[in-house]
């Protein structure tokens, strides 16, 4: 009896090697001793991009937290989910291209990621944008994949919502936003203004009193005139 051996494609063999090789498997704390990212991932993604309709609709997360270490990993997690969905509805030739791309990013499934958070918001875009972003994230992650531990990236984070109340401000922040103190010349002017007004009032009162003392009343003026008229006669008689 002749037993036909299954035909193993190069992509299937690479995926099997990725799953079975201890050096390529992610450790429980999500770190890699050998790089699971191939040197030809750009060519693999370009082949799929050239074959697909450029305007095929997919969705991407619009509010993933910007994180230098975890950000590329999170984007690849979401891209790998889309590769699985597309494989389920694609034809045979398309499936081989999708499988090749999926093999490039399958390593993200080797870490125990938490379920997607409910705060994630998705927007529709074209498959070409998703593939371009996948290539860029692999390029950003490749130099660090064996140097960093990704155990702190196992839960996708959302950007803070604008409606979320801000945390209480520290006393130092409150001091920094307090109104500036009045400048010294302005403060001195405000202090001297009442004194100046008081001195001006006192000077005006003194001037008015002196003028009153120097200006006699009409009756006093009549007596003084009569006195001047009588005074020469009195002097003549004596």
Automatic annotation (TrEMBL):
Organism whose genome encodes this protein: Felis catus (Cat)
Lineage: superkingdom: Eukaryota
Presence of the UniProt keyword Cell inner membrane in the record: no
Coiled coil: none
Protein's name in the database: Fms related receptor tyrosine kinase 3 ligand
Keyword vocabulary terms for this entry: Membrane, Signal, Transmembrane, Transmembrane helix
Membrane-spanning residues: 186-206
Signal sequence annotation: 1-26
């Amino acid at each position: 009896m002749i037993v036909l051996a299954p035909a193993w494609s190069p992509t299937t063999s690479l995926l099997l090697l990725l799953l079975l090789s201890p050096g390529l498997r992610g450790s429980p704390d999500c770190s890699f001793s050998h790089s699971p990212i191939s040197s030809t991932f750009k060519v693999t993604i370009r082949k799929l991009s050239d074959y697909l309709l450029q305007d095929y609709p997919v969705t991407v997360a619009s509010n993933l937290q910007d994180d230098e270490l975890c950000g590329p990993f999170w984007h690849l997690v979401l891209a790998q989910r889309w590769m699985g969905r597309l494989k389920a509805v694609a034809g045979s030739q398309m499936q081989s291209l999708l499988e090749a791309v999926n093999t490039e990013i399958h390593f993200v499934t080797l870490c125990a990621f938490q379920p997607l958070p409910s705060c994630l918001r998705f927007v529709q875009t074209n498959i070409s944008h998703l593939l371009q972003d996948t290539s860029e994230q692999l390029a950003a992650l490749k130099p660090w994949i064996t140097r960093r531990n990704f155990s702190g990236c196992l839960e996708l984070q959302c950007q803070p919502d604008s409606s979320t109340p801000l945390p209480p401000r520290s006393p130092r922040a409150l001091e920094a936003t307090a109104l500036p103190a009045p400048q010294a010349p302005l403060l001195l002017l405000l202090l001297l203004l009442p004194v100046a007004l008081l001195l001006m009032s006192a000077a005006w009162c003194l001037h008015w009193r002196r003028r009153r003392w120097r200006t006699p009343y009409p009756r006093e003026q009549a007596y003084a005139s009569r006195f001047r008229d009588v005074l020469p006669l009195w002097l003549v008689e004596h």
